[in-house]
TrEMBL record:
It comes from Paenibacillus ehimensis. Cell wall formation. Adds enolpyruvyl to UDP-N-acetylglucosamine. Belongs to the EPSP synthase family. MurA subfamily. The active site is at C116. It catalyses: phosphoenolpyruvate + UDP-N-acetyl-alpha-D-glucosamine = UDP-N-acetyl-3-O-(1-carboxyvinyl)-alpha-D-glucosamine + phosphate. This is UDP-N-acetylglucosamine 1-carboxyvinyltransferase. NCBIfam families: murA (TIGR01072), PRK09369.1 (NF006873). It is found in: Cytoplasm. PANTHER family: UDP-N-ACETYLGLUCOSAMINE 1-CARBOXYVINYLTRANSFERASE. Phosphoenolpyruvate binds at K22, N23. Keywords: Cell cycle, Cell division, Cell shape, Cell wall biogenesis/degradation, Cytoplasm, Peptidoglycan synthesis, Pyruvate, Transferase. The gene is murA. Pfam families: EPSP_synthase. GO terms for molecular function: UDP-N-acetylglucosamine 1-carboxyvinyltransferase activity.
């Protein structure tokens, strides 16, 4: 298995361009099948999750390919409504195909995506929303069959501002007959990106980014070309890496407005951040300060996807900090591995109590999920000595060749590929 090897203690410096957002590209690629023709999506990151989604689109009958950072999808021959369990199990985001397939074919067959390292990951809000729009849903064991002769508008109130459920409902409602409102909608920037993509294809949606989204169904959608927003979680990850290595890094093609809560926390920790349009400079000349309390919750609050990464900074801070995780029930898997590197963290239910230590020490550690893996990379950059990270396929799901990004900023990091035995 491939591994990452990191020689810690080198301050990051230099400039780097932030690649396109995984969590915007995935629903937008799914939505592309809602129009017949050729759709071009720009600024798509080269990630394993993206390649899995392209594989699913091909399985449904599309031609889909990533050339550079542009994806071209030809959707004329979409005919398949069954999503193979093998592909579902590879990536939970296959769930984003429900709305588009119901819209395009009136039927979708897939499987419960199942839980993962960070939690149960239920889909009840997705199913409730699609049923409100007129879909008939049958669950046979792990298989789910949704059918709809005609989708119609509805007034939907989400019990929880689920990102995926908001997106699935938006997509299904875009060509439903009549008006749909989603109340208590998720407000993430990726939802605004999906709205803008759907509207570029002729949909009539307003309100994304607020807690109430209104969709006026249209008869059909038409192909378009669209550019994905920058990845705010990749940007936040690199900001924290710059901070823990006491570096000076400039992020380019970033959207600072998408990172308000993370910027606020880093400034409270003593990190200097200056913003000039889509350029952000991050500079840390001294040991970070502790932050009394960070609570993850839906956007625009502090994002759960930066929780494990900020915990590394707090592990090196001068003082005690508390991190409370309210979005996923199992998102502290990185704590054991950080403790093996010398961090002093105590977990009690969904809160972690972090007592800062002067330094971390290199060790051989294992990535358990995407963002926990990113946190271990950050810890390795700051640690004294050498760190080896295993199971790095988790990291490749959300970061486009993370070792090249970081090496370009002066990090001592490389990927080892096992020599095939005879
Ligand atoms: C999206 O996941 C992101 N993934 C996640 O990023 C992100 O952490 C999450 O939103 C929250 O911001 C993509 O966009 C591909 P949710 P999603 O539905 O849509 C519960 C990363 O690292 N819930 O907002 O699955 C659920 O169990 C990934 O890039 C229900 O109970 O998130 C969870 O506790 C990780 N029923 C909470 O809501 C449902 O029907 C948040 O889930 C749906 C969700």
């Amino acid at each position: 298995m491939e591994k990452l090897v990191i020689e810690g203690g080198k301050p990051l410096s230099g400039a780097i361009r932030i690649h396109g957002a995984k969590n915007a590209a995935l629903p937008i690629l799914a939505a592309s099948i809602m129009a017949e023709g050729t759709i071009t999506i720009e600024n798509v990151p080269d990630l394993s999750d993206i390649h899995v989604m392209l594989g699913i689109l091909r399985a449904l009958g599309c031609r889909a390919e990533l050339v550079g950072d542009n994806v071209t999808v030809s959707t004329n021959a979409v005919h398949q409504f069954h999503i193979p369990e093998s592909l579902m199990s590879q990536m939970r985001s296959s769930i984003f195909l429900m709305g588009p397939l119901l819209s395009r074919l009136g039927r979708v067959e897939l499987y419960q995506p199942g839980g993962c390292a960070i939690g149960e990951r239920k889909i009840d809000l997705h199913l409730q929303g699609l049923a409100a729009l007129g879909a008939h849903i049958e669950e046979n064991g792990s298989q789910i069959v949704c059918t709809a002769n005609e989708l119609h508008g509805a007034e939907i109130v989400l019990d929880y501002p689920s990102v995926g459920a908001t997106e699935n409902i938006m997509m299904a409602a875009a060509t439903a007959r009549g008006m749909t409102t989603i109340t208590n909608a998720a407000r993430e920037p990726e939802i605004q990106d999906l709205q803008n993509f759907l509207n570029a294809m002729g949909a009539r949606i307003i309100g994304a980014g607020t807690d109430t989204i209104t969709i006026e169904g249209v008869a059909e959608l038409i192909p378009c070309t669209y550019r994905i927003i920058p990845d705010r979680i990749v940007a936040g990850t690199l900001m924290i890496a710059a901070a823990v290595t006491r570096g000076n890094v400039t992020l380019e093609k970033v959207c600072p407005a998408h990172l308000t809560s993370a910027i606020h926390v880093l400034k409270r920790a003593g990190v200097q951040i200056t913003i000039n349009g889509d350029i952000m400079n991050v500079c840390a000349l001294s040991r970070p300060k502790s932050v009394e309390r960070i609570v993850t919750s839906p956007y625009p609050s502090f994002p759960t996807d930066l929780q494990s990464q900020i915990m590394v900074l707090l592990s090196l801070a001068d003082g005690v900090s508390i991190v409370k995780e309210t979005v996923f029930e199992g998102r502290f898997k990185h704590v054991d591995e950080l403790s093996r590197m010398g961090a002093d963290i105590r977990v009690d239910l969904n809160s972690a109590y972090i007592r800062g230590v002067p330094r971390l020490y290199g060790a051989t550690v294992e990535a358990t999920d995407l963002r926990a893996g990113a946190a271990l990379v950050i810890a390795g950059l700051a640690a004294q000595g050498s760190t080896v990270i295993e199971q790095i396929h988790h990291i490749d799901r959300g970061y486009d060749r993370i070792e090249l990004m970081l090496a370009s900023l002066g990090a001592g990091i490389h990927r080892t590929t096992p020599v095939p035995t005879e």
